[in-house]
Design brief:
Layout (H helix, E strand, L loop, with lengths): L10 H24 L1 H8 L3 H26 L4 H19 L5 H31 L4 H29 L10 H29 L6 H6 L7 H8 L2 H19 L3 H7 L5 H12 L1 H15 L2 H20 L8 H21 L3 H4 L7 H12 L2 H15 L3 H30 L5
Helix pairs in contact: 1-2, 1-4, 1-5, 1-6, 1-7, 2-7, 3-5, 3-17, 3-18, 4-5, 4-7, 5-6, 5-17, 6-7, 6-12, 6-13, 6-15, 10-15, 10-17, 10-18, 10-19, 11-12, 13-14, 13-15, 14-15, 14-19, 18-19
Length: 426
């Protein structure tokens, strides 16, 4: 197999990739994760209606993965990623006008196009190029861990902005006052994403390699590339692994709500819980990435799913309530460790499985068609259980469903690890 690159890539490139990789998802996802109840209140929508917005996003993303992958094999990452960030930011300014539910659906469909068709495969391929043949674990560890830090910083600043515009105790404020405060959070976030997009467009550059020069001569969309990636057993297993791991990641959206509804925290305290967890991602990303480069990425994915299975069972059984604060902290920390470990490494296994760099975009797009379908149904599933059973009961049922996905992912990851050890993944 040809080397991924023969020249060392600049350090600033991975830093730009980290910032961009999370910034593009702040408006569609992170704000809702940190300010979930405030978001629902501001737009006067239910959990299920928010889930339907995510489903529209997921449906657009479904087709965007397929066609956006080959696009990344043709055009430079700075062009695709820069434009994607700028368009996503423009959508954020529209979000700040508090559109109707119908228009909110349209906005999420638009974001499905900007963040996936233009951005996703280009970002994954750029990270693989930076990591070369020997540093895939640390490349994707830096990427996801750094993304966690970026999200945490955005979240922290968002909480500060929200607090600044809340001039009295949060429990004494009116809905209108909270609407004004949250609008400022959205506006400042959109400005930041816009600026990052401009920086990426002009500054994201790689040292040229023979592989990169050759790839740009390839056709935009070829059946040959799809046939190539479909021959790899790793591709099919990664579909299942990413599907289950991503569903687990979507469940982290509920940590802040659990803190508010079950642990009885106020809105600002609950938002801080979600933010604090994001600070775990940089540590987990770097540590797990280093360990993966010294062992196998697939091994740590197995461990991640095991941790997810155990902790989802704890939440499902309803053991945690406002009298077990320490257990709550340990459990969400352990679940985050499992979720982030799997999330950090699943694309690092592309090198482990010996998938050619020239078809990386196509492979990522093809895998993602199935792997990221939780964007379509996870929000609806969670919304259904949360609306049908308010409070602790609904949250327990939601974590029970996560447990099923964790078990399936665990066995898929074990199979990937075994086949990789026998060198029969390709």
């Amino acid at each position: 197999m040809p080397k991924t690159n023969t020249k060392k890539q600049p350090l600033y490139v991975i830093l730009l990739l980290i910032i961009a990789a999370e910034a593009v998802f702040i408006l569609p996802f992170v704000l809702q994760r940190i300010f979930r109840t405030t978001f629902l209140e501001s737009f006067s929508i239910s959990q299920t209606e928010l889930g339907s917005c995510f489903s529209v996003y997921g449906l657009v993303a479904f087709f965007s993965y397929l066609f956006g992958g080959p696009l990344a094999d043709k055009f430079k990452p700075n062009l695709l990623m820069g434009v994607a960030l700028i368009l996503t930011a423009l959508g954020g300014f529209y979000l700040a006008t508090y559109p109707s539910l119908y228009n909110l659906h349209l906005l999420y469909g638009f974001w499905g196009f900007t963040t996936i068709f233009l951005f996703w495969a280009a970002m994954i391929k750029a990270t693989r190029i930076w990591g070369g043949t020997e540093k895939q674990g640390i490349a994707f560890g830096f990427l996801d861990g750094g993304r966690g830090l970026v999200a945490a910083l955005f979240g922290s600043v968002g909480v500060v902005i929200f607090s600044i515009f809340i001039t009295k105790d949060i429990e004494l404020t009116t809905v209108e006052e909270r609407l004004i405060a949250f609008k400022e959070v959205i506006k400042y976030t959109s400005i930041a994403v816009l600026c990052i997009g401009i920086i990426i467009f002009f500054l994201l550059r790689f040292n040229e390699t023979e592989n990169l020069k050759t790839e740009r001569k390839a056709k935009l969309l070829t059946l040959k590339n799809f046939k190539t990636v479909m021959k790899f057993r790793a591709v099919w297993l990664l579909m299942v692994i990413i599907l289950c791991a991503y569903y687990g990641y979507k469940m982290t959206d509920l940590f802040s709500q659990y803190a508010e509804d079950v642990m009885l925290y106020n809105k600002i305290e609950a938002a801080k819980v979600g933010t604090y967890l994001l600070y775990m991602r940089p540590v987990i990303g770097v540590v797990i990435g280093l360990l993966a480069d010294r062992t196998k990425a697939s091994l740590w994915i197995v461990i991640g799913f095991l941790l997810m299975t155990i902790t989802s069972l704890i939440f499902y059984l309803g053991i945690i309530d406002d009298s077990t604060t320490l257990l709550f902290v340990i459990s969400i920390g352990t679940m985050a460790l499992g979720v982030y470990s799997a999330r950090v490494l699943y694309f690092a296994t592309l090198e482990e499985a010996k998938i050619p760099l020239a078809v990386t975009g196509t492979a990522v797009g093809f895998i993602s068609i199935v792997g990221y379908t939780p964007d379509i149904f996870a929000g609806l599933v969670m919304g259904y259980f949360l609306d049908a059973n308010k409070g602790a009961a609904g949250l327990q049922n939601a974590f029970g469903i996560m447990g099923v996905f964790a078990v399936v992912g665990f066995f898929a990851a074990i199979l990937f690890y075994i086949l990789n050890k026998k060198r029969v993944l390709n």
